[in-house]
Amino acid sequence: ISELQVAIVGVRAFGIARGLFRYLERLISHSVNFHLLAHIRGWFFRAVEPRVPGAVEDIKAGDLLSRSAHDIETLEDFYVRGIAPPLAAIIVTLGISLYTLQYGMTMAALLAGGLFLTGFVLSIQVRSLSRKRSEAMITSHGHIAAMTMDTIRNTAEILMTGAQKRHLDGFKQASAELRLASLSVSHLQSVSLAVGVLFSNLTLAGILFIGGHLVQSGRIDGVTLAVLALVTLASFEPINLLPAASSRVEVSLASAEHLFEVTDRPLPVIDGKETASVSQSGSLTVTGLDFKYPGANRTALKGIEIELFPGKKIALVGPSGSGKTTLFRILQKYLPASVGAVYWNGVDFSQLDSHSIRSCQAVVSQNGYLFSASIRENFKLAAPEADDPRIIKAIRDVGLSNWLYNLPQGLSTWLGNNGQQVSGGERQRLLVARSLIMDRAILLADEPLSNLDANSEIKIMKTLLHHSGKSACLIATHRMISMEDFDEILVLSNGEIIQRGKHGGLSNQSGLYKQMWDEQNDRFLTS
Fold first, then answer.
1. One domain, residues 100 and 214
2. Are strands 472-476 and 442-446 parallel, antiparallel or unpaired?
3. Of 95, 198, 430, 515, which sits 20 to 30 A from 450 (CA to CA)?
4. Residue pLDDT, tens place only, 84-102
5. For residue range 454-498, what is the model confidence (pLDDT) as tens digits?
6. Domain stops at, among 403, 423, 439
7. Do 216 and 82 lie in a common domain?
8. How many domains does the chain have?
9. How far apart are CA 92 and CA 102, in angstroms?
10. Domain end marker among 214, 241, 263
11. Separation CA 34–CA 54 (nearest Å)
């Protein structure tokens, strides 16, 4: 009776404490998870930021978003299913084996063998089988995310070209692949759980068989045999979770590999330790610059020479694909020079920190981004110190004063994702206006006149040149507007500067510049 009383008290104590222990276990595991996820998100952003855009151009935006969100969230299971359960299983296996050892080596070996077979051998096999399934599931999810973002961005074009069915079929196929991969992983987890239960029942049968002989021989009593049976069932409770957990761990590892596939890419540029002098003036010098994209057959830029000092205005003209955008990326230190060098105030770019270089530049691009925020917030992103009158003046300078006046909410008007709430021309003017309030040492404008009519092009170009003031100014354009206002014109073709000079001289000598100028005038006269 006394032995039963001890057992009863123990059962009650552990039964009552189980809820508390389970709560503490969940509290600790979730705390570890959330801290781990926060650390991983910060690490991934810090790793991706210096690799954009040069090292990730082959990854679609939706896929990159899926990696930074879904793949990192998948790692939430890593501690709960990949670290804690195996540790608990090892402790349980050792403890139960030592406990049953007092009843004989055979019983202890049988129980330890059953636990090892279920927790280790079966888990290894399940993990091996789930590896390709997990990779397929993560890849399919990234593919769907990329398709979703592409569809959202290009909805108008899809509707205009009648390509809805083709895109819908693509979604159906990708969804079917994801569903098949997910079902395959779930099926494997279910089978592993069933096999684990089978092993636990076989082990229990062996324990009862051996225990029965011990009862008959008088070495143990019936109560002890019942306790051994319950201990066997209880010991398999954490062990049976391991095979399915190993499958989930494989999904987490596939997600981690997806992240490492980005973070392990070499940095396109190496930052120096010096800081560029952030001032209202500065000189940018390009000497003997060559650049070739990795794996490309031809050189994208060759022998580029540019001298840009305070107040100097340079136009960079040439046909599409001549290398203008590549040159701008190098000047912003997104890409490195293969040969030659770029200097800021006499200091080689390779010795300067990229962020400090960009802090000296105001950039206008045809693909510039307007955030899903108000007009005011978009402008304050470029110049946090800018007040409303300064923002309104910049908007007025690009010819949008009437447009702004007619907006019921004024500067608080929401622009939508990448400026979807405004027209293409209004969006481009806002991008130009945002650059005007930055007041940087250098203005870099890559096709700033896109989506504008002829009259607006002239006004915007003159506005850019006027407001750049003492800043150095480099404007790349295929629209030859206000060329007479530039101090120098560079003609770029197939990555080489084939002509340079002023408008008066270039327009009167044979060459690509005169050809482009005459073609533009002919189009203007016939339109």
1. yes
2. parallel
3. 515
4. 778 878 888 888 888 888 8
5. 788 888 888 888 887 788 999 998 888 889 999 999 999 999 999
6. 439
7. yes
8. 3
9. 16
10. 263
11. 31
